[in-house]
Design goal:
Distance between the termini: 81 Å
Mean pLDDT: 77
Low-confidence stretches: 1-9
Radius of gyration: 22 Å
Strand order of the largest sheet: 1-3-2
Helix content: 55-70%
Order of helices and strands: HEHHEEHHHHH
Number of helices: 8
Structural class: mainly alpha
Shape: globular
Number of strands: 3
Amino acid sequence: MICLNKLMQQTKNLLTIKEASQWASDFLKRDISKSNISYLVQYGKVKKHNGGSSVFVDLNDLKSYYDSYQGQREVDWKKKLGNDLNWALSFDHLREVDTTKHVHRLHPYKGKFIPQLVQYFIDNHTDDSIFKKASKNVKMKLCAI
């Protein structure tokens, strides 16, 4: 009987991907899609529990994950790397859908730079002369062919 109660208690904490997205949306007071939850499972941020043909996530794991995002991550990383850490470059405020543009969902692609990071460095750390020189060199090479 004790094992049955424990099993029932564990299954109360398991949510489907859809239920987890609804719970997270209510918890964070913003839209969290099923894709967001699938992403967390796919990248191992939240443990996956198999239930036949369905995937479940533990409510406590999900809560712990989102609790870590309530400003504590910035504090922890600054302790590790120093206060001169530019937290804006973490793009922590963006949704997963905004940082995975131009990527299919067939498998994770961990080596991809998110578009916002590339845009940041192009906008803030280049001037027009770099692009003019690059385009002039390309034109010269094309003319030589």
